[in-house]
Write a structure and sequence with these properties.
Elements (H helix, E strand, L loop, with lengths): L5 E6 L5 E7 L2 E9 L5 E7 L2 E9 L6 E5 L2 E6 L35
Antiparallel strand pairs: 1-2, 2-3, 3-4, 4-5, 5-6, 6-7
């Protein structure tokens, strides 16, 4: 089999799941990463590494954090007017600009 390019899903032995874009068999572009502990993160990847801004949610989706280049930098208040950074939710993930991004409306990772 050749290298993955385009959208795909990868399940890891530890229970984590990634759904998103690939280039040359590496995470590259936008994606959602579900951790085995229930946390979820939506953000961007470049050649397999997390880059730029991302948002991470708690397992119960009651709390969220802004992440930059893989490091948590602030908690996001989840009130009715909450908006994710436009660098995360634009185009394919959030055409209407609503919170949260559509991939995280699904509480569980893809099977």
């Amino acid at each position: 089999a050749g290298a993955r390019d385009g959208r795909g899903v990868e399940q890891y032995a530890n229970g984590d799941v990634f759904e998103g874009e690939y280039r040359g068999d590496k995470r590259h572009g936008r994606g959602t990463y579900w951790y085995a502990n229930g946390h979820a993160e939506i953000g961007r990847y470049r050649e397999g590494a997390r880059v730029g801004e991302a948002v991470q949610w708690s397992a119960d989706r009651a709390r969220a954090w802004l992440v930059r280049d893989g490091e948590v930098v602030a908690e996001i208040e989840l009130d009715g007017d909450a908006q994710l950074p436009s660098s995360i939710c634009d185009g394919a993930f959030d055409p209407g600009g609503d919170f949260p991004c559509p991939p995280l409306l699904r509480m569980d990772p893809p099977e």
